[in-house]
Amino acid sequence: MNKNTPTRLSRRSFIARTSGAVALPMLFNGIPLQAFDGPVVNDLFNVEAETDRVLVLVQLNGGNDGLNTVIPLSEYGTYQSLRSNIAITENKVLKLSNATGIHPVMKGAHELWSEQKMNVVQGVTYPNPNLSHFRSTDIWMSGSASNVNETTGWIGRYLNTEYPDYPTGYPNTKMPDPVAIQMAPVVGLALTGYQHQSMGIALQDPETFYKLVSGTDAPGNDLPSTKLAAENIKYVREVQMKSLQFSAVIKSAADKAQNKFTYPTSNRLADQLKIVARLVAGGLKTRVYVVQLGGFDTHASQVGADDTITGTHANLLQMVSEAITAFQRDIEALGIADRVVTMTFSEFGRRVASNQSLGTDHGTAAPMMFFGVPVQDGIIGTNPDMKNLDNGNLKMQYDFRQIYASVLEQWFGAKKAAIKDILFGSFSTVKVIKSGTTSVDSEESVQQGSAWTFQPISPNPVQSNAIIRYELRAAHHVRLEIFDNLGFHVATIVHEAQESGLYEHVFEVAALPSGTYMVQLTLNDERAHQAMIVAK
User: Fold this and answer.
1) What is the CA radius of gyration of the chain?
2) Peptide bond before 367: cis, by omega within 30 degrees of 0?
3) Is the pLDDT at 242 greater than 90, yes or no?
4) Is the peptide bond before 104 cis (omega within 30 degrees of 0)?
5) Rounded mean pLDDT of 420-445?
6) Of 68, 110, 108, 107, nearest in space to 89 by CA
């Protein structure tokens, strides 16, 4: 290679070369560099674009026993009396607070809690819950009411709004990678779009997937004469070709990054999360990953005969805790932890009272858990009231669609109107994501100068047009500029002398990648800055 030929910087090399400078209290274009956060949003110097925000859904198949996962210490007497043969010994519970704790085997999760990287949402279910595994799973996956048989998925519908007409025209320059990946032989209902198309692909491991699809022949003309059969085969072949198109980019992403943390062995969930970490760190732009662990249908032998902190459920919770903790440590070491949120869910909880087989039967409400640096740590809701039951089951504190709405709004920046369409109704939200991670605080204060006022940008996050307002109480020479999160100039909106008055500018963000930008208002020798989140 000619020594004067420019070489493509890897993302890791670019960060390594610039991190020292960014750490210094320096100004770039007059803006303190430490003010910038969030993903790198411009493809500067041919650096590979950062993956956007990533949601990892952890499905606990079978109906996880929430009461032995998140233990109500403040109600321990009632808890112990209702499930005396499976109750976790009080002094062995790992405390989240004086009132609430988690199963003793969940040591890794407890560490994440102490680091403020864990959130628990209590009492999640839906009105008129269904206790069938299949039907309840469909309800959770579709994000619909229990009396509606919906055939599309909640996250699939969201992704379909972000990537219209998918899979037609994909991959493309905007989205060259799979929109979603499910670590399973087939893609589930949750990832089904509005036209009943899969918004994701199934992947068990990149190497096997690559070998499988790379050997697939292109669709031929040997279709059966029956119209329905021909259409079905065409669909299967279209899926095969779509997988073939994505196989190379998935393999390439997996090859670019290596896990930096040792994952537990003989752990099915850890095996899946290990691959997710590599793909995200390798630059894949996939927005949603679905992983799963089965075995939570603990009708019998949920606990050990001699010790209630052992047994089937303990083994499963240990796998969950160790897998998620290893994944969190890995993404932190890989430098991608600020872009990844992990959420657990199960189709239902278990009944409050245990049975005679050292187990629990199908129930209703149960806790959901969130993990990650961007997560608003703490406990949402209260310990369940076990003295006020509904036919032996816990009553609902939060509709699961409230949690979905919270994720869509706070993590992905979806608008309320879009969320209403996606979830077939309006649902109040709870705070599961820290403010400032993916959005700007709606109560951001007005900035005042000697003779000017800078109003908060609206809306923020912004998907199409941002409204930027300021008021001059005297004549000034004004510069209104946009910079990306590395301090590089993006646009100049105003550069002129202006008289006193109220000014409003509409800035279109359609051409900008998602991420954090800084709006700088300069008036003579005074400067003011506001963060602007572009969320598409």
Assistant:
1) 25
2) no
3) no
4) no
5) 74
6) 68
